[in-house]
Design a protein that fits this description.
- The complex is a heterodimer of chains A (155) and B (260).
- Chain A has 155 residues and is an alpha/beta fold.
- Chain A is built from three helices and eight strands; from the N terminus they run ααββββββββα.
- Chain A is elongated and about 90 Å long.
- Chain B is mainly α.
- Chain B has one domain.
- Chain B contains nine helices and no strands.
- Classes of the chains: A alpha/beta (155), B mainly alpha (260).
- At the A-B interface, helix 1 and helix 2 of A face helix 3, helix 6, helix 7 and helix 8 of B.
């Protein structure tokens, strides 16, 4: 069988470009660095309404992402949504009276959890619970309230 | 009535035997991996004819598909003032669907048809029987390298297709239409997941490569050894690979992206 160096080189180039494409896709197109979940601690917050919050939604403080939502479940005793958040380890100085709210990024954007630090001297630890929470705004409720108010004004 | 039933039974039996023959053939091909490890130059040669020669059509069509996606996506997204998400749209559709599927279809047209014709002609000119006479197993010597070459090339080609497509989309979106370059990439990176999107796309294309190479080689090996038989086998290869690709794509998509 004829076995030339050009053939080897071309095949090598082909395989190499395929691997480069794969690396490009993993590094540039998706974010591989954020795929490896950094070590962190879990914080729980209970919301009356979790709205359209999804697992992996960002958790931010002052607009900076410090963690992600790791699980959302329903508490049958208190009829509340239990949102577990994994906060990155390096952000371990959040006061334990921090409040959590669910906001929407932009008009049609995805929902995220925003933390508002309080003034306590004690810090949130693994498994601690955020007591002060504000639910997601449901558009229909706001429109309903607005209509109700308009109707009230007419009388 | 009886005749119709008879025909139905005949067709079913034919199809089942063919499937059975195909399965045995596949198992036989898979045992050829030992031969390939002993003679990697056989695989290299086939990687050239299956992979390298398909490289050009994959890159050119990837570029144009990406550019068209960028253009069309921009027209729709700009109605909602969401041009910045163009990167997400282009990359998601390429990595999840178009990359694996379109490159598999192109692969069926460019490489698989050639494989079937080659094997079919070898059979028609009794080269395969000749090898058997010399106590060389043609399935291991001729077919296995071609099978593994197709199997390895497909994911590489699909990844290339997606990459070139994303770059084409970026070229049109950022270069011509003025979408912000930073937003294009950062939104894409925020939305696309490595395991959910990239790896699933690669898995898809690996499955397509496996099935398409199998179909092509089996159709060639099973062809009626006449010129008409070879031509029909080639047609069947392209049609069946395309069907298998599209059908499997639906099943894989339902399995992979179901609970999102």
């Amino acid at each position: 069988m004829q076995h030339s160096k050009t053939l080897d080189t071309l095949v090598g180039l082909f395989v190499a470009s395929g691997i480069v494409a794969f690396l490009f896709l993993s590094m540039q197109v998706s974010n591989l660095s954020s795929f490896v979940e950094p070590a962190g601690y879990l914080v729980i917050a209970r919301f009356d309404n979790a709205g359209g919050l999804k697992v992996k939604a960002p958790v931010t403080v002052a607009g900076v992402r410090i963690g992600r939502v790791s699980a959302i479940s329903f508490d049958e005793q208190q009829f509340q949504a239990v949102v577990k958040m994994r906060i990155e380890k390096k952000y371990n100085r959040l006061p334990d009276d921090t409040s959590a709210s669910i906001f929407t990024a932009g008009l049609l954007g995805e929902q995220y959890v925003s933390l508002e630090p309080g003034g306590s001297e004690d810090y949130l630890q693994d498994g601690s619970e955020i007591d002060i929470t504000q639910s997601a705004l449901v558009l229909e409720e706001i429109i309903g309230q607005l209509l109700f108010k308009k109707a009230g004004e007419k009388d | 009535m009886l005749y119709v039933l008879q025909q139905l039974g005949y067709v079913t039996r034919q199809r089942l035997t063919k499937l059975g023959r195909g399965t045995f053939f596949l198992l036989h091909v898979l045992t050829g991996i030992s031969d390939i490890l002993r003679r990697p130059e056989l695989l290299i040669r086939q990687l050239y004819s299956v992979g390298v020669l398909t490289f050009l059509i994959i890159t050119v069509s990837g570029l144009f598909v990406g550019m068209v996606l960028g253009l069309q996506g921009y027209y729709v997204l700009s109605d909602f003032g969401a041009e910045e998400t163009l990167g997400v749209m282009v990359a998601t559709s390429l990595v999840r669907e178009l990359g694996p599927v379109v490159s598999a279809l192109l692969f069926a047209g460019r490489a698989d048809s050639a494989l079937t014709a080659e094997i079919g002609l070898m059979k028609a000119t009794e080269q395969l029987s000749g090898m058997e006479m010399m106590a060389v197993d043609p399935v291991k010597r001729i077919i296995a390298p071609r099978f593994f070459a197709g199997f390895f090339s497909m994911p590489l080609l699909a990844a290339l297709f997606s990459m070139i497509g994303v770059l084409g989309g970026q070229m049109v979106g950022v270069g011509l239409l003025g979408v912000d370059d930073g937003a294009f990439w950062s939104q894409m990176q925020a939305k696309l997941d490595f395991s959910d999107d990239i790896l699933n796309g690669i898995i898809k294309s690996t499955v397509f490569g496996f099935v398409a190479s199998w179909i092509a080689l089996f159709e060639g090996y099973d062809a009626v050894p006449t010129s008409e038989g070879v031509s029909r086998a080639t047609t069947r290869t392209v049609v069946n690979s395309a069907f298998a690709t599209l059908g499997l794509d639906f099943i894989l998509t339902a399995l992979m992206f179901g609970d999102d």
